[in-house]
Amino acid sequence: MKIAVIVILCFIFFILPQCGWAGDCSPVQISFTRSYQLIPDYKDVCGLRLNLPAGDNRNITGIDFGFLGSAVESKGIVLNLIGNFRSFSDSQDGSGTKGIQIGGLGNIQFVADMKGIQLAGLMNLNSGDTDGIQIAGLYNGGGQVRGIQMSGLFNVAKSVRGIQIGLINITQELSGIQVGLVNYIRESPVPILPIINLKF
Questions:
Q1: 66-99 pLDDT, tens per residue?
Q2: d(CA 164, CA 124)
Q3: Which one of 15, 32, 57, 192 has the fewest CB atoms closer than 10 angstroms to its CB?
């Protein structure tokens, strides 16, 4: 049994990285840190990435699972017990996250878009566009939100086309409904209302 485990580990860490994958995309990634991972961080992963505890690759397509994950673009299911970090898209196609993003503590995206569902125990922060649903225990922050923001305390967005539900809801522009103790729409004849605020 021990010999089999040693052979498998040797294959994973010494043989598999030498194999060429189509389009410079690996079907498997096992990461301990950015410096110690099966496939270099500049290569893409098309399949499964295990972050034990942390991983970093440019693009992920498939399943991204572990403790802490980082990438520029991900498509598929992203589930990390600590959280997910997506940053600084340099493309013009609105790359970021497409699919489901679940972070135990939070999901953070800078200059990247989100299309799908973001779930976090504490916080979702997305400075790009959000098309879909953001649900967090404490805080959701977004640029332009088209969909739903739901949190236990605080929702903030530059603009919302949809629904904000939380203790405090703040946006500059709204085409939809806010439900919460304090609801603020900066560009509205009546900017602050309790319980429900709406503008279409």
A1: 999 999 889 999 999 999 987 654 444 556 889 9
A2: 14
A3: 15
Q: Are 169 and 183 in contact (CB under 8 A)?
A: yes
Gap between the Cα atoms of 135 and 53, Å rounded: 24
Residues 140 and 185 grouped into a single domain: yes
| Per-residue DSSP letter, 93 | S
Q: Give the separation between CA 132 and CA 9, rounded to whole angstroms.
A: 40
Round to whole Å and give the CA distance between 64 and 57: 10
Of the residues 53, 71, 89, the one at which a domain ends: 71
Q: How many CB atoms lie within 10 A of CB 57?
A: 27
Number of domains in the chain: 2
Residues of the domain holding 61: 1-71
